[in-house]
Amino acid sequence: MKPKVAVHKFASCDGCQLAFLNAGEALLTLASLVDLVHFPEAGPVAPDIKVDIAFVEGSITTPEDLERLMRVRENSAYLITIGACATAGGLQALRNFAVAEDWMAAVYASPEYIQTLATSTPVREHVKVDLELWGCPVSGEQVLRAVRELLFGVVPQQEADKVCLECKRQQQVCVMVTRQLPCMGPVTRTGCGAICPRVGRDCYACFGPAENANTEALAQRLEGFGLLPAAIAQRFLFINSQAPEFLAAGQRWKTDPTELS
Amino acid sequence: MTDSGDRTIRVPVLARVEGEGALDLIIRGDRIEQLQLRIFEPPRLFEKLLEGRPYTDVPDIVARICGICPVAYQMSAVHAIEQVFQLNPGPWVREMRRLMYCGEWIESHALHVHLLALPDFLGADNVIELAERYPDEVRRGLHLQGLGNRLLRLVGGRSVHPVSTCIGGLSHAPTPAEIAALLDEFRQALPMAEALLAWTASLDLPDEQQDFTSVALRHPDEYPMNEGRLVSSAGLDIPIQAYQDHFREYQVPHSTALQSSLDGQPYLVGPLARINLNLDRLPQDLQQQVAACGITFPSRNMFHSLTARAIEVVYAMGEAIRIMAAYQLPDSSRVDVTPRAGIGFGCTEAPRGILWHTYELDADGQVQAATIVPPTSQNQARIEDDLRNSLTAYGLHRSDDELRKHGETVIRNYDPCISCSTHFLKIKVGRE
User: Is B43 in Cβ contact with A106 (below 8 Å)?
Assistant: First the structure.
């Protein structure tokens, strides 16, 4: 019996599911190794079936989705979040800093028809998560490697290094040192291959916090470049705003720290 | 065969569409009493979360609206913002943006044709099953999809949420050697795309003629991607700035998404609308291939969207080859930007149809207001119209399962990208 795998979607752009759908031949290989029992975007629909591995894309933003997530957890032996939305609330979690009702009223003529929670939250705030794969989006390699490792019976390993280390490995000249760009690489988890510095721009932290991220040192460096506190806060409160390290740093700089003393 | 009493058919989760939706159908006797395309996708309120962000964040933010067509969102946004700044990044940037769009059309269309649509027409449940019966055709499709993604990786850094697009140009210029290597593979794969076109045209698709208005961009001398006027098959011909004078977005309690209308009527955007309105803008040799494929365009058969996508894959392959063959390293991959206050408009041809943006910026280039109208929201009313016509023509006496399957095929044919949830929402529907 092949292990059963499900891919569930919540509030998201579908980009992380493309880790499977863009895999080409590897998708066909994956289908020979596991039984893809629920993956609506690819075809199979069986939301309430018991599975060995469940991948969860997207953040929790509605009461129905919260109930659905509880069922997914009950039915899944091993639950893996894929991407910034499921792992850290996603870009849509910026609404957590606003009054949700005001935003709904601004976008929709009849907001009373819409059922939504005030916040966009990561999966781990509601159920136990066995593995979190960071990235906006996750790469095919991250996802397929996790499946392969689980099939071998080992605990999947994740990159936790900083993007800075990846730049060094790739012999990429530092964009912060040489061009004074407000690069988030020093606090951001690698796994992307340091693509932003490699195409000549600053990292914007789409893979979330690295291990031992010294957010305060980076924030002060950004201030040295002339960024105002509000702009520094925005650097942390972006795609992974609900990651605790980024949330704390962003909240700290939202108000000018000098005013607090 | 079922009796003629009331029947309710529910498709709880639509498979093989991007995002989550459902179809509810109530049939009374020989007519459809109620038909609802429901969208589960929760609102993500992108227009609001753009407010207060610097213009430099916009391409990275709007990409996240859709993982399948992030380039489209970036393109409509950069054109709108550059209009505010009265900025023209020049011919090199123009060609590179077109090249990125080629990558996205190839990737998105190949994905839809092979993984989402073809299983319907060839009697398979999904692409895995399809690959067992049509291994060569599926592998050819996956190869084309992969080439589109590789082009995006080369120019954009990665294929989902590319990182190089910025106001004023591109953050880098690929090396001529990298371009030459990929050019070679595109040239080798062009016959595969042409074979795909001939194959889709040879398939036995349902023959259903419908009345609908096509809407697309139209450019004086090229097949439209980033520029053009908005035209329709009913004679509309306006600059993109005038969009809101003719098109309306509205929320309806019985539906699940904001819908759009053109002068009060549903309309079609996307590959078939583009081909219907811009056939004469395809290169001569491709026009000949289209003429020889056995389907007459302009077409009123929505199922010809499949072949329209294949035609655009061939077009995008050829266009990418043209741009890459002429590639030269620029002095700079971007022009300097001086922010200024104002309102700008951008409308480009996403894989699924016109994607209209407008931004209001302050003097520092900070977003004050944004409006984004995705293609799938524009197609909603047309899809519901199509379902009514198509299911009635198919025969309402058929079994629930047959009607469900046909309904799903009709919906998928639009390649609805429900994740474009700037505007999609879940609505609690009160029933009498």
Answer: no
Range of the domain at B318: 46-380
Pairing of strands B165-166, B31-39: unpaired
SS3 A49: coil
Instruction: Confirm whether B151 is domain-assigned.
Output: yes
Residue B371 near residue B358, CB atoms below 8 Å: yes
Q: pLDDT band for position B13 (50/70/90)?
A: low
CB atoms B419 and A12 under 8 Å: yes
Q: Tell me the pLDDT band of A99, cut-offs 50, 70 and 90.
A: confident
CB atoms A114 and B425 under 8 Å: yes
Side-chain half-sphere exposure of B118, counting CA atoms within 13 A:
28
What six digits make up the tokens of A38? 């629920």
Does a structural domain hold residue B286?
Answer: yes
Write down the pTM of the prediction: 0.94
Level-2 CATH architecture, domain A4-151: 3-Layer(aba) Sandwich (3.40)
pLDDT band with cut points at 50, 70 and 90 for residue A158: confident
Could you say which of B64, B142, B171 has the minimum Cβ distance to residue A199? Answer: B171
In B112-230, which ranges are continuous DSSP H helix?
A: 118-121, 127-133, 135-156, 176-202
Hey, are the CB atoms on A22 and B146 less than 8 Å from each other? yes
In chain A, where the domains are located: 4-151, 163-255
**Could you tell me how many residues make up chain B?**
432
Q: Domain tally for chain B?
A: 1
Torsion over CA: A156, A157, A163, A169 (sign): negative
Domain contains B7? no
Any domain includes B71? yes
Residues in CB range of A197: below 8 A, 6 or more apart: A163, A167, A172, A173, A174, A175, A183, A185, A203
Distance, in Å, from the CA atom of B368 to the CA atom of B137, rounded to the nearest integer, reads 49
Residues 6+ apart with CB under 8 A from B260: B247, B248, B249, B250, B267, B373, B377, B378, B380, B381
Task: State the pLDDT confidence band at B12, using cuts at 50, 70 and 90.
Answer: low
Q: Quick one: pLDDT at residue B377?
A: 84
* Any B CB within 8 A of A204 CB: yes
User: Which tokens is B3 given?
Assistant: 């009796």
